Amino acid sequence: MRQGRKARQADTAPKRKVDYRNLKNPFPPMRAFSDDHIAKMHEAALDTLENLGVKVLLPAARETFRKGGAKVDDSTEMVFIGREIVEAALASAPKSIPVAGGARDRDIVLELGNLVFQPGAGAPHATDCIKGRRPGTWEDYQDLTRLTQHFDVLHMVPPLIEPQDIPIHLRHYATMEAQLTLTDKVPFIFSRGTPQVEQSFEMLRDFRGLSDAAFHAGAQCYTIINTNSPRTIDIPMAQGLIDFAKAGQVSIVTPFTLMGAMAPITVAGAITLSHLEALAAITLTQLTKEGAPVCYGTFTSNVDMKSGAPVFGTPEHFRASLAAGQLARLIGLPWRSASGSAANLNDVQAANETQFGTWGCLMAGATVIIHAAGWLEGGLTVSYEKLVTDMEVLQMVAELCAAGEDAGADLGLDAIADVQPGGHFFGTPHTMARYQSEFYEPLVADYSNYGTWQEQGAVDATTRAAGIWQEILAQANPVKPDATALGRLKDFIDKASQAGGAAPVS
Known about the structure:
single chain, about 500 residues, alpha/beta, TIM Barrel, seven-stranded mixed beta sheet, four-stranded mixed beta sheet, 20 strands, about 15% strand
């Protein structure tokens, strides 16, 4: 009888309801520097742009700057951008950017205060406990895309890994096909030259059944634009800024600066350099098309001065994120930061570095946090197991975001009255009504005691994570693309491939 009652209670108890898709950062932003010092860094960036300039390798981009009032020296490829030009660009750049997913419940809004996560991106290698470390493949790209789709706390699809078994002049077809058919989240498009970008836009537009006007009227995708520090915007990145601005699609401008290597060794110096490079790129988007959607960004950490290798999740990385957040709030734009790890496998070092880097982004008020799951070796590898173990942290953060101000508002006064001093609350009606829904249920963590853990095989977290991702990939793909749209996509890819594809531009 007692077992029957318990079973009935379990059946009728409310299930836990969480929304990981729409997150607001609940943490007050921290500061690395005083407001006066941040203002000085901004002024120094404006002065540097005007007096020292930036090198812009793309002639069309230099011409755009020239028409916008900047001084241009074509012989040196240097562009000198007056502060009034930059200030006008910051005024026209949108402070809130709606971006459409493949389904309406996957739409996101990029603005200060919102919180969007991405897994690790851009790695040439993949690794897992079964196949080991290897060059990234088309199969890996598809698998990681499906894992990204599975977890609601991941909101955008990044470039994950490079499928190196597909030639680069055809690779954008494969990555776009995977993003359109295996996920309904916001897709990524590489800026590797106008031909690839325009073909990717066309695939996305036609798959979603949009007219050309509708596609250009709202953001449907995004790209990452990395400047070449110090003070250089190369040809494909400059062209990407122009292409995406013209099409009304999102550019996330992200100088990748390492203190002591391609940036000054101090946090303030590195962030000032990153800031001025980001301002130059943002200005190019607004000179191309006023009001074009663009995100401020930074990815600044330091190097190991013994080896010169990049490191992440350091105190300097944390402080740099805080400073970047202050500058982002100063100019009022949504912005992107990044976590990461330099560890070579999914171990304690990897967990510590990624968590510390992530918390730096959270405390800095970042809108988009990339490399938040799976990233190893300073970006050389994405780990299947680490992607899953990092999910535990991101979901716990999402719990804090989703809780809101009313979390725990129920004082439980009836329960307090029911239990006499020295008693317990396990069997109270208050507990029984909530025990299935009140607490976060872990994804990877094992809360059993040592004896029970041993009896169950003494399985460590990485091994448990391996089982989880295999179970996810064994399930049917939940995304069911429209057959007609899928047919159009396949026809486009076949014809474009037979015509020779599209080579990247460098």
